[in-house]
Amino acid sequence: MNDAENTPTSVSQPLDERVNNRSQRPSSAAFKAFMASNWAPSGQHLPALDAVANYAAARRKAISEKFKGERLVIPAGPLKVRSNDCDYRFRPHSGFAHLTGLGLDHEPDAVLILEPAGEGKGDGGSHHRATLYFRPLVGRDTEQFYADSRSGEFWIGARPTLAEFEARLGLATVHIDGLESAITKNVGAPEIGGISIRLVRKVDENIDALVDTARYNTAKDPDNLDLAVLDALDEKLSEALSELRLLKDEWEIEQMMTAVAATVEGFVEVVKALPRALTHARGERVVEGAFFARAREVGNELGYDTIAAAGNNATVLHWTRNTGRINAGELLLLDAGVEADSLYTADVTRTLPVNGTFTAVQRKVYEAVLDAADAGFAAAQPGAKFRDIHTAATTVLAERLAEWGLLPVSVEEAVSQEGQQHRRWMPHGTSHHLGLDVHDCAQAKRELYLDGILTAGMVFTIEPGLYFKNEDLAIPAEYRGIGVRIEDDILMTADGPVNLSAALPRKADDIQSWMAGIYQELDGGLPSGANR
């Protein structure tokens, strides 16, 4: 028998093992015994209670108040495959992060369960007892320690133990092996002594299936189980978790300030990179890379894909390909945000003259957008409606478009519900809430969001823009290819709005001076081809 006949064929090898064909990992008993021996202790010790722990406990208590007597299941989510055996960097679901205080990448598959405990008999006088179900690292005496590339310490580094998580979070933490029982026990109709369950769906397919099976198995009439009713139960939980984030606590506001400050640093790095971007076939990628480097150095990640759009690309609202050249004389629209280690993100946009100086037409468009942003800021007062910001900003834009002879109707007709012609050049909303998600609180009810009252603790954007596409024949040629957006992150206080991103220049003259100062520090001059 030859060597080929002694070699197992691919037919006999399980498919899920073939992704590891490249690894050539030893499997001898001697190797396994050697790998399990002579390891020093990790040196980890129980940390102090995290600063966020008390805030997270208060958030859980608020959710407990809304769902007395019901079991609440909030998954972090699993790892997601990017390509074959390579995963995307893990990020937990925002509702899970908000209620636990956890961020970063060490809790894939974890689940938070709020178990009903009776009126006022739960944690901190709430109506539930919270438990985090978590998969700790396996021991160094196990094969998984060195063989499991997804969860083995040899591959991914140390993760907190159950005791460390509990000490950090002030939250009961147990092994994930008990999760199935914790989710499914006593599920059923309350009138027969069962417990109603609510789940944040579409986060972890395995948890969805487990809850669905438990509901089906305990239904009085499984064949007539009304899935729409159950889905509505779950949607109410997602809605409540989203609405809970409409008002930020002190810790969250600190995180937002941290994210914004890091984002300002990122914009400085972009200006420093512009001279090289002007010489590169993919200048927009140079800009994107400069910002990303800062985001990873000082934060966790980007809060969203960076928009680095030069020239006509700036008229594409979500231009994230960033494959274009950056040419002298163009504007660069940079929409970017750093996500802090806590997962709170900034969302800031500035439109910069690549040469360091606006042309006359560029300045005219830019200052119209700035006036609109200022009008939105003035309208953002405690007690006003969230939608008033948009109305104030777009009315200014309609007035400027009319002054320039671009609006085909009167301002009054354009801003009416029956008109809206000005929205050809400003089609998006002017504001959105901001926090753990760049478009935070997205599942909140309309009456609490668009029709909601501006209240101290809200954090949101103000971001009007004008976008004149090259192919737009409804405007004179001088405007075509110009896209301008100005976006700031706003904290509402009892005394009025505070611009968290005010450290980044907004006025045209201030932007020019700021850019010139950065270039001066670099090499004593503006980029090649710049206006002087």
Features:
Creatine Amidinohydrolase, Chain A, domain 1; 2 domains; 14% strand; alpha+beta; three-stranded antiparallel beta sheet
Quick structural overview:
The chain is α+β, with helices and mostly antiparallel strands. The chain is built from 16 helices and 17 strands.
Structural commentary:
The protein is about 35% helix and about 15% strand. It has helices spanning about 5, 30-35, 55-65, 95-100, 145, 155, 160-170, 180-185, 205-220, 225-245, 250-275, 285-300, 360-380, 385-405, 410-415, 510-525, and strands spanning about 70-75, 80-85, 85, 110-115, 130-135, 170-175, 195-200, 300, 305-310, 330-335, 340, 350-355, 460, 465-470, 480-485, 490-495, 495-500. The protein is built from 16 helices and 17 strands. The strands form six sheets. It has a five-stranded mixed β-sheet with strand order 6-5-4-1-7, sandwiched between helices. The chain has a three-stranded antiparallel β-sheet with strand order 9-10-12, with helices on one face. The protein starts with a helix and ends in a 9-residue tail after the last helix. The longest helix is centred in the middle third of the chain and has 28 residues, at about 250-275. It has two domains: about 55-245, Creatine Amidinohydrolase, Chain A, domain 1, CATH 3.40.350; about 250-525, Alpha-Beta Complex (Creatine Amidinohydrolase), CATH 3.90.230.10.
